[in-house]
Amino acid sequence: MSNRATLANAIRALTMDAVQIPNSGHPGAPMGMADIAEVLYNDFMNHNPTNPKWADRDRFIMSNGHGSMLPYSVLHLTGYDLSTDDLKAFRKLHSKTPGHPEYGYAPGIETTTGPLGQGITNAVGFALAEKVMAAQFNKDGHEIVDHNTYVFLGDGCLMEGISQEAISLAGSFGLSKLICFYDDNNISIDGNVDGWFADDTPKRFEACGWDVQSIDGHDADAIKAATEKAIASDKPSLICCKTVIGKGAPTKEGGHHVHGEALGEEEIAEARKHLPWPYAPFEIPDEVYAGWDAKEAGAAKEAAWNEKFAAYKAAYPAEAAEFERRMAGDLPADFEAQANKFIAEVNTKEESPATRVASKGALNGFAPLLPEFLGGSADLSPSNNTFNDKSVRINDDHGSASMNFAGNYISYGVREFGMSAIMNGVTLHGGLMPYGATFLMFSEYARNALRMAALMKIRTIFVYTHDSIGLGEDGPTHQCVEQIPTLRMIPNMAVWRPCDTVETAVAWKDAIKNDARPSVLIFSRQNLPFQKRDADQIANIEKGGYILKDTDGTPDVIVIATGSEVHLAMEAAEASDKKVRVVSMPSVEVFEQQDDAYKESVLPAAVTARVAVEAAIMDGWWKYVGTNGKVIGMTTFGESAPAPELFKYFGITTEAVSKAIDEVA
Ligand SMILES: Cc1ncc(C[n+]2csc(CCOP(=O)(O)OP(=O)(O)O)c2C)c(N)n1
Ligand SMILES: [Mg+2]
Questions:
Q1: Could you tell me if the CB of 365 is within 6 A of ligand 1?
Q2: Are residues 497 and 592 in contact, defined by beta-carbon separation less than 8 angstroms?
Q3: Strand 187-188 vs strand 373-377: parallel, antiparallel, or unpaired?
Q4: Cα–Cα distance list, 210 to 204, 216, 230 (Å)
Q5: Does the beta carbon of 247 sit less than 6 angstroms from any atom of ligand 1?
């Protein structure tokens, strides 16, 4: 059997050789953290390489995602379906080994990392999901949910502001099964970090309620002892590991160039002597593979869990079936029928509240169907209307620090980015469907987490209220103008801006149903009038855009509107002596996904006289109205005044739509 140093050197060798092929990548972090990875995987990780999705596996997250060759090496060595050829294809088009770890490529990669700070925040979501699933499903003598979340992170993750949001929440929640290893190498890209990162990191974490240990990150015994202590702790744990970046590269270790530059053939040759690693590139001796191989042990661990689960299933068959359904991400079998029934009920009520209120109504309709909902808000629950009749607080709002993890609602505090990246972690963990809210304006604070959800093709639901100048007196700091159009630009993201109660319920249904993309649901602060529709029109809302009001024969003009401007279009159409069709387009992206025949039926190419109206920056609408069309929208920031005055001041009125109709027709 190989000794620990040799096993760790296998990571170093695979890293330096893989990075050398494209002459691009980051050898420093994997070589520096190799000893930690060796101890963690060989002594602690509960995982099964032949079933990377085993429900109760420990999760591993490389938050310093530039060090991607570390997880790739470990996954290869422990026996995942990641071959030597896959490692040689590092950073090549469509390889399983992209520059940063991407969810859905190599098996065993739990989340996409690279944007620093988000991996640790995802990990808080994983650890939170573990606690919630355990509280919801475990029974006396049946601990079917019981796993740790392990994180590697670097100086960069800790410099990012989002890490403070994550650390603070993990401490408040007491996420005792979250164990982080900090690659304390004193180096980031610009050099030695003392000039820009002089924090007392242990004190910072201690202040947030974490257990902190400081060790030599190259001392296997110390790593092992610290990990044992961290596992036993009832707090989240940080293990500060003093390391040498690029350890093993004889002339380059410890310097900042090794962070993100290939070592070069000469240095690699010297490293082979220095480590020592007397083997050819990608040659791993059998005894080294044997030292790493986790297939047999992993299968045994999973088999033991399967037995546990079988006993649970015998005692609690309904709960076991729910657990399996939820971990698979499937909706209840009758969801579609129940959802449509609910939407029909909403339609018969013909109510005209603000869509943020309609959203609460939709949650009250859907939440009884979906015990997997994990709701929340970044300290705007009363404004966002996200706390619904089925909501049960996890964190108390009356001064108790104790947690009720069997609940389903979280006050995230004022942490929009943290909330969003935590929700992504919760989604990725499985078993829960997170939605979280803030004002639409503060989607800006969260934006990269939205992009990551879209990139990972995961179902995270981002709820945003107070969508435009329609919020009124809070003024231009809170009034969205560019947010709606720019959110629409994120690939694989559905953005919904419904105009009334029925569209709101359909938007929620669509977000719930689509498990391969995130959704943004945008709601108004102000009341919006109910629109009458027939059954076909209601069915067509799910197509993103549909004819809300039509005329006999070919229309003279088509007016396209969303959200709070739909009723302006309807009023102008009523008042016009022209044949005006009104198209409500609550989701441009979903409409774009329809077939050409449907799109042509809604927006016939022959009808070129077109107007679009939306209280936002107008740029996106020209593709539908053409250069001869008219767009009514915003060109500047808002102003501080009551909403009706603002709509008048900015010229977003029924009269303006009427005038535009006359100008284009
Ligand atoms: C949000 C974000 N900003 C910037 C970068 C670019 N970047 C990648 S690694 C890095 C420095 C990270 O330093 P550290 O975490 O200490 O990594 P080490 O050099 O020790 O491997 C930077 C700035 C990034 N990936 N994400
Ligand atoms: Mg560093």
A1: no
A2: no
A3: unpaired
A4: 9, 19, 10
A5: no
Cα separation, 111 vs 102, whole angstroms = 6
Q: What is the pTM of this model?
A: 0.98
**What average pLDDT does the segment 415-439 reach?**
98
pLDDT digits (tens, 9 = 90+) for 578-588: 999 999 999 99
- The helix or strand, by DSSP H or E, that contains position 154, with its residue range, turns out to be strand 149-154
Nearest Cα residue to atom 9 of ligand 1: 66
% of the chain at pLDDT higher than 70: 100
User: Measured at the alpha carbon of residue 380, what is the angle toward residues 379 and 384, in degrees to the nearest 5?
Assistant: 145
CA-closest candidate to residue 121, choices 259, 236, 275, 269 = 236
Q: What spacing in Å lies between the alpha carbon of 114 and ligand 1's midpoint?
A: 8
Render pLDDT for 181-211 as a digit per residue (tens, 0 to 9). 999 999 999 999 999 999 999 999 999 999 9
Query: Active-site residue among 102, 110, 302, 416?
Result: 416
**pLDDT for res 1:** 60
Active site residue 565: no
Report the candidate in 293, 232, 355 with the shortest Cα–Cα distance to residue 2: 293
Distance 163 CA to ligand 2 centre (A): 15
In the prediction, which pLDDT does 2 show? 84
Q: Strand locations in 414-544, DSSP E? A: 433-439, 461-465, 494-496, 519-523
Q: Is 282 exposed, middle or buried, given 0-12, 13-18 or 19+ CB atoms closer than 10 A? A: middle
